[in-house]
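Now for one record:
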Amino acid sequence: MFIAIEGADGTGKTTQVERLCRWLEEKGHKVVRCRDPGGTALGEAVRDILLHRQTVPLDTRAEALLYMASRAQLVAEVIRPAVEAGCIVVSDRFVLSNIAYQGYGFGLSVETLRQIGDFATAGVQPDVTIVLDMPVAQALQRIQRTPDRLESRGVEYLERVRDGFLQEATRYADRVIVVRADRHPDEVEASIRNIVEPFLGTG
């Protein structure tokens, strides 16, 4: 099984990824955790450029393609082998982030990004994608570090990104599910468990 956790920074993704992985392991599953971009030597190098080296200018298309390159390596090196070995993969972000941030946020063609994403992942996609959602201003207040390249683009940009996540969840309601993240982490975790458990085939 392949699960992606999505949403803006500040919505609690890292916390919920950690909790979900721990719960799955307690249930006896072999779990592989990864992050996108990142998760491989190539991916971590690309992540550093994309998020932290703000002095490196990036055209929007170049930015989108760097994310895709990192993801292609992640699928080839980590995700596909793990799924084929019977593990559950939990990824902190996947293709939907490109669609939300570069598509809805920056105005690149969503359909083109979807097509490039299919090419980069060789058709591999999550069985379920969980979008953690909360108002942008509230999410920004939670971030206790220097804003990265994406967060530095301002509230209006991030509002378009949030709208993109929600629109995609409406469009693909069978496999993209929104969870309110402006609640206690225990409540968010319980909601995520309720979504994931039917896919496990166990009680």
Summary: The chain has a mean pLDDT of 92.
